[in-house]
Amino acid sequence: MSAAPQSTASGAPSPPDAPSRASERPVATAAGAPRAVWAALAALYVLLFPYHPGLRSPNELCRLWQTRALVEYGTLDINGALRDYGYVGDLSVKDGKYYPSKAPLLSFAAVPLYATLRAVGGGHRHAVPEVPLVFFSRLFLTVLPTLFLLWLVRRYLRAHLEAPVADALTVTYGLGSLAFSYSLLFMSHQTTAVLLFAGFYALWRCARGDWRERGYVLAGACAGATVAAEYTGALGVLGLVLYAVLTVLFQPLPARERLRRLGRAAGLATLGALPFVVALALYHQATFGHPLTTGYKYLNDAAYQPWHLGGFLGIRTPDPRAFALSFFSPLRGLFTLSPFLLLAPPGLILMLRRRGLTAEARAVGWMGVALLAGYTYFTSSFSYDSWGWTTGPRHLTGLVPFLLLPAGLWLERLRASGRTWAPGAAAMLCAASVLTTGVATFVNYIPDDVSNAVGGLALPLLGAGFFPPGVVSFLGLPQPLAGALPGALLLALAAWVYREVARAPGRRWPSAGAVGAGLATLALLATFHALTTEHDDADRNAVRFLQSVWLTPPGREVPFWPRPGA
User: Fold this and answer.
1) Could you tell me if 229 and 191 are in contact, meaning their C-beta atoms sit under 8 angstroms apart?
2) pLDDT value, residue 7
3) Which of 27, 245, 255, 284 would you label with 87, given CA atoms 20 to 30 Å apart?
4) pLDDT score recorded for residue 14
5) Hey, CA dihedral for 316, 321, 323, 327, is it positive or negative?
């Protein structure tokens, strides 16, 4: 990883590429989106709680059962938690002891929170009911970190893009991508995205000369924590390493000086990563008998074992079916749920073809290409059938924030092209992403045999009055009235994103050509969803099943924290 630029006589760091940095803007807080936009976005994150105890969400509960075990029994195994709180899935078993099959960071991170809730609830073993445990674990460990990530994303994008485009893309990422879906689940996918982008942000500030060398310690800590949160996060860490190395190799400096900077940065980053790497190795040794052995070697469910055997952690040679379904499936394709990401590939090409770029800008372009290629290989080589009841291709969550700048650069090119229809169509891709992913996230547990996540599941549920649970419903407002607020906020923010991107600079509203192109794009997307929704027995059965386990069905109040014995 690259070292910080040398200081001038005054002590201020001097950026190595100052003469060619015209394409970058200062990291500033220029006027942009109204505060009401950010308030509405934050409200959707905080108020929504798509959770249904009847599903026994294995990816979430196996982590929280280990949290319970650490506090209640002082053990890494969850045998006692399974006995006292009920069975959950996604487990590994070795020598008769059960553990989560997942990387352990979130389980340990929830320990202080659980201990606090336990004290508030009375201090006994059953003091914390399941619903508040899941709610507060999500709020403090996945929701609030994602809101912090959105702040970082906005600052980064505003250093490269016009304020309207940067703000609209930040909102689109926050509500129209996997970030929204997996911040509202106690899973590690969005945690990985937060840690990866935070590590990248630290590297970027060091490469610009904004931060001193100790920023590499933070970048290393984020990289180590990424792997401790999700094993496949190592793929994103490799992308960060590539970026950091290229920011040095592309500099017009003597080879010895470049090697010196790389060495110092690598040492500092290693220092930051070391505590997490050592802790993870010790955890593996204590649970599975070897520092490099993960729980996937000892999966309790024999049906899942073939998905993780062969290759590296189940990653083999690419499968065209897995590739096509991961990106274009009407059920959970990345571009189906977030069509605005279609702007990223041409944006990456644009980044690499620009002349006069700084070393940092060239490095970020090649990092984007490497991450897109790496994650594409991963999702094409891993068993598509192992994704489970998920919203979108969940293991691509860490990739998405690194596609925002390329998408934004292409958006700016369309806005400057003089063709009014182009930004209108692109703006609708952003707005449609907010609506499509937002509505799917209202459900957030998508059975894998449904034809279309929106038309086959989410819309029938919403039409029957099954809106997502949340703070408003826990306060006593019955469904579907409680669900009207998040629905209205989602629609309003989608409309704001469309207007902000489609209008020409200096104009308040989009032109007639932009509106026409936007409507045509919306019609095409709606037609695709309509044609791929089968309304067959699988769709109807999925709707009926989710209605049977819905936490807050229409006309029924559910207490957030039931009284003991209730």
Assistant:
1) yes
2) 37
3) 284
4) 39
5) negative
